[in-house]
Every structure is written in C-alpha cells, then in structure tokens.
Fold this protein.
Amino acid sequence: MKKKAQVFELQAAIIPLVVVALVITVGFLILAELSSQAVSVEVASGQNGTSGGYAFNATKTTQSALDTIPNWLPIIVIVVIGSVIIGLVSKFAQR
C-alpha cells in the first residue's frame, strides 16, 4: 500500500504542472489576440500596423519577456519526477 502512496504523490505533483501549462498557454493566446487587435486598430487609424503603436509594442514586449517560461516546464517536470524516484529509493534503502 505504501508503494501506491508514492505514485499518488507523483500524481499530486503533476496536476499543478498541467494547470500551470494550461494557464501559460491561455495567457499566450490572449497576448496573441491582443497583438492582432492592436494591429487592426493601427491599420484602421491610418498607421502601417507593423510596429508604430503603443499597444502593439507593449504586447510584443510582454510576449518576449514571457518567452522563457515554457522552456522551464520540462526541467520542472524532470525535477519532480526525480524527487519522487529519490524518495522511493530512500524508502527502499531503509528496509
């Protein structure tokens, strides 16, 4: 029964990681939509729609600042799985 508890610890750690990944994905989708809306507003107001407006520049700056976050998710997953494996090995070593 104790072996199953270790698996449940892994499951309890994976669910928040999936939620974080989904939140990040939705955030990037919202930023992409904001960027396209800013371009539409710029074109409608007579600007060229590529890089002149404040809203467009702000969304692009935010997107570039957040670009590194998805690169950390695989590392976090590996660390969580490694910690569960180390926990299992230490419990087996105690016996």
